[in-house]
Amino acid sequence: MGTTWSVKFATGSDVDERAVRDAIAARLALVVAQMSQWEPHSDLSRFNRAQAGSWHILPEAFFAVLDAALALARLTDGAYDPTVGALSELWGFGAAGRRDGVPGDAEIEAARRRAGWSRLSVDRHRCAVMQPGGLLLDLSSIAKGYAVDFVSDTLTRYGFFDHLVEIGGELRGRGTKPDRSPWWVALEGDESSENDAIVALYELSVATSGDAQRFIAADGRKLSHTIDPRTGRPIPDALAAVTVFDRSCMRADALATALSVLGAKEGHAFATSRGIAARFLVRGPHGLVQRMTPACAAMLPPARANTG
Q: What is this structure's pTM?
């Protein structure tokens, strides 16, 4: 899915590490085979190429992830949208890779017309979805989180209750390290270290959406890989990153993208009203400023908590 993974787990010396690795790889291969836009033969890619009006019965995992994405699309009035594939490709953040230059208004509008979560017809009894024609699913903002949960649950079933799973920067921690200390995760800060923070992932997941790694540069600005489906353009560069904590990495992953699109003010209000633990890094005249929801501030020492 265009990224890397790592797993750390506490266990005895008699464990067959190759068997564990093979089990993890099998779970990840399943996610790729169903939900990867980089794999031309995946279930997602086949749906994206399908004829208008055709119905497709999806594998259980694929349907569950898409159903969760559509629920968040409804909740955010389309600020989050799993059908932005045409826009992601247009801006060079899809399977086709980077492009030269910024697309024109006509190209953006044409790609927008191919998106729209409300265009999807869903039959939950059959786990089926209809392709309305030209619509491209893009689950990259939620599938990695699902894969983290999937691998974590697999390790637990194998009896490895103490572990840390990371895929593309999204993490889930369970149990503790062998010395009984928690799985510590450092959050993005700035050069002054004023906004640095570490959090213990004990039965907790964390996901971040930001422009530190994936962006394109145009006219001296960073254009984020996060696309606002309502405008067809990258979100404004005033927001550097959004981090979300949740027991489910899938939810944290999708919410980090949704809050990024909503923006620092509306996103903060949205998260606060729903008890979401979220941290916003906003670019100001003197560097990055962090804003936390009350649920997030409660997780950190008072000196680090700012809900302003």
A: 0.91
